[in-house]
TrEMBL record:
<dbReference type="Pfam" id="PF00455">
    <property type="entry name" value="DeoRC"/>
</dbReference>
<dbReference type="GO" id="GO:0003677">
    <property type="term" value="F:DNA binding"/>
</dbReference>
<dbReference type="InterPro" id="IPR001034">
    <property type="entry name" value="DeoR_HTH"/>
</dbReference>
<keyword id="KW-0238">DNA-binding</keyword>
<dbReference type="InterPro" id="IPR050313">
    <property type="entry name" value="Carb_Metab_HTH_regulators"/>
</dbReference>
<dbReference type="InterPro" id="IPR036388">
    <property type="entry name" value="WH-like_DNA-bd_sf"/>
</dbReference>
<protein>
    <submittedName>
        <fullName>DeoR/GlpR family DNA-binding transcription regulator</fullName>
    </submittedName>
</protein>
<dbReference type="InterPro" id="IPR018356">
    <property type="entry name" value="Tscrpt_reg_HTH_DeoR_CS"/>
</dbReference>
<dbReference type="InterPro" id="IPR014036">
    <property type="entry name" value="DeoR-like_C"/>
</dbReference>
<keyword id="KW-0804">Transcription</keyword>
<dbReference type="Pfam" id="PF08220">
    <property type="entry name" value="HTH_DeoR"/>
</dbReference>
<dbReference type="InterPro" id="IPR037171">
    <property type="entry name" value="NagB/RpiA_transferase-like"/>
</dbReference>
<keyword id="KW-0805">Transcription regulation</keyword>
<dbReference type="InterPro" id="IPR036390">
    <property type="entry name" value="WH_DNA-bd_sf"/>
</dbReference>
<feature type="domain" description="HTH deoR-type">
    <location>
        <begin position="17"/>
        <end position="72"/>
    </location>
</feature>
Amino acid sequence: MSTTSDSFATMDSPLLPAQRRHRIVDFLRVHGAVTIGQLEQALGASISTLRRDLDALAAEGVVDRTHGGALLRQQAPEYATFEPDPVAAAELSPREKAAIGEAAAEALEPRQSVIFDSGTTVLEAARAAVRRQIPLTAVTNDLVIAQVLGKSPLVQVHMLGGMLRPGSTTILGQTLVDQASSLRADVLLLGAHAVTDDVISETSAELAGVKRALMKAANATRLLVDSSKFRPRAFMQIASLGDVAEVITDSGLPAAEEERLRALNLKLTVVKAR
């Protein structure tokens, strides 16, 4: 199945119900989980229509309905280690990620040292930081993020070395962990695969280990996660929410989850997608 942006683009003509549901299942096979809002962006159908589609797929035993979305039932046992295709991941919640990235960049101060973790939401923060045209010392383990930051003459970019993750732009490995141990940055902009109760998690032990090393290298960690990331936990724990200074997410966050986060000893920033 293709994972290019054309795969989930809004159709020029309406789809028949069977066609639309087939595309929903294809979407879930790539992403594992999805919200109705994300399907609305991808397919161009109304929310009421998509709710009926998900209810029908749940009745057929294909998906498990969640608050505001669905999980692919066949994939649910393996979802803890499921890694979305990078191209497909970039298509998920684009407006939300852009708004979160903008908020994260606006909070940065000139001449700060900032670690940019890998991931599509942190990439949006890098793009927004370049648009702000402020001087920064940036550190990253992501090739694309380094290229984006390098477009600004005001940003001094340091790449962490190591092994390139297959099929990805992320650098991993013990070499990177060792280098991170000698750093002390002002801020880390952290991405994650899932947030479940108080646990921040990732799909692989190696990726989680790198993120833990980056957290140790920063005075403050700001977690950048769109609302779809509040879901069943992935394979390996990175940290607890008590280890981060701020969570930046979007207004699709369920009310109960927002209330729980506001009761914790951290700053919660909720942005609205444009």
